[in-house]
Write the structure tokens for this entry.
Amino acid sequence: MTAPMTAPAAVSILEVAPRDGLQNEQTILSTDDKVELVARAVRAGARRIEVTSFVNPARVPQMADADEVMAALPRPEGVSYAGLVMNDRGLDRALAAGVDEVDVVVVATDTFCLRNQGVPTAEACLRAAALVGRAREAGVLTTVTIGAAFGCPFEGEVAEERLREVLLRVVDAGPDELALADTIGVAVPSEVTTRLGHAAAVAGPDVPLRLHLHDTRHTGVANAVAAHAAGVRTLDASIGGTGGCPFAPNATGNVATEDLVYLFDRMGVSTGVDLATTTATTRWLEERLGKRLPGALLRAGGFPG
């Protein structure tokens, strides 16, 4: 007798277009357009959205209206809004703005961490622990993301031992979730499997893992499949494939939300995100940014057509 088939485990796509997607764009969207982008993501089915970052506007002018964006957002039931924070001032602003969760970044290499946050990795880990503690006291979900977990634009390869050292430090902070970021898009599936394995071993079964993918070298979709096979159930993606880091040379966009939705739809893996609605938003966002975005589905269309 043949055993009944079970559906593949669903995957949640955390939409990062409003924050990571816009922070490296020369065209700065209006507050109203940012709010509309979030509303469109919600209508498409996104339930976790990284909406902004509470950072120094002199360094990231694209996020200068973070407080205004948060104040104008609709608050539908079941939708969680995240903000990225780097320091106590940023966390104060995020909590005052009413975020549902905060994302704290620690970059795995000292050179990149100094450029991104002004401190070496060890100090960033200490800051992250303090921020996580404060955010959890405030009842806000916390994620620590390890940036450049697969490679650094300044130091090159990031040794597995170095990653493990950083993992041990950030897990001690007690975040609710742990994310690895392929910040410059150098990872390949075998590395995704291996490094997620290290993260799972350090974090233990009670801390869910998340993966933040960039598609710089067109490995993002393959890496997403590897992550799902490794047990990761939350993946970051950006509508249209927008994104990049202002402090990393040649940084390009995140893996496109619509590309992941198409991929998982065809695999029979539920994402809860509507492909047609998301692709329509890519077209809308192209018009606002005045440029063609790298996501594939707007050009190729779904299949069957």
